Structure formats: structure tokens, C-alpha cells
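Sample intake sheet
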Amino acid sequence: MPFTYDRTIHFSDTDAAGVVYFANVLSICHESYEALLAFGGMNLKEFFSGRSIAVPIVHASVDFLHPMRCGDVIQVQLKPTEIKASKFRLDYTILLSQKTESNPIAATAHTIHVCIKTDGREKTELPEALKQCLIQAIE
């Protein structure tokens, strides 16, 4: 079962047309990733400090299926689908809580993250705590 993150769309998420600005969908996905890490026991302040390693996103993709507007309540379902030695992929499904037409899916997305050493910017293995956090979200 995927990890879920509930959120309300804010006015600041939207563009002049009143729908979520495309780049903000990735921001919402990243919020759910942070929530997953916190739920898994990761210390976010330490994890995102970039002291010895960093885990940047090297690829991101979003498909928009239904507009999201200010006040809409959404649920982001987040599921790790690939966990390798130095990288992982996260798949996101963003659902509108109020049923629209026959499909409540507003968007789907995925991100690919690679673990690197901050001093030399070379790939390195994922920390064990991060691996376990991701594996826990799959089970």
C-alpha cells in the first residue's frame, strides 16, 4: 500500500487561470517525499543539510489529467518503485478527494533521485536508513 499525504490546494499554488501551476505539482510531490522520510524516522534537518551526501533529483516527469483548484483537497499516494545501490525512483498519484467525472486522478508523476558525495559529486551508496525508509513504504 502506498504512503499517503493529504493536502489542500492553496491560492499560492495556482496560476492566473486558477489552476495549480505546473511546477507546483512537483513541489507538492516533494512535500509528500519529505513526509515519507519523516514518517520513516529520518531526521529531515540532518538529511537535507548536505554535509556528506546529497540525494538530488536527476529526472522528473508529470502528467496532468484533471485541473486542481484552490480549495481542492488532494491525496498524494507515493510509492518507491525502484531502489538500487545509489538511486531510487518514486511514483506519485495525486487524487482529488471529491470525485470528478469517472476518474479522481488529477496527476501522476515520478522522480528519480541519485545519492552523491557532496565533496566530489560522485555517486555513492544510499544510506541504510534511507533504504529502510523506502522499503518500508513498499511493504
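Comment: The helical segments are 22-39, 44-47, 128-138. The first strand starts at residue 3 and ends at 8.
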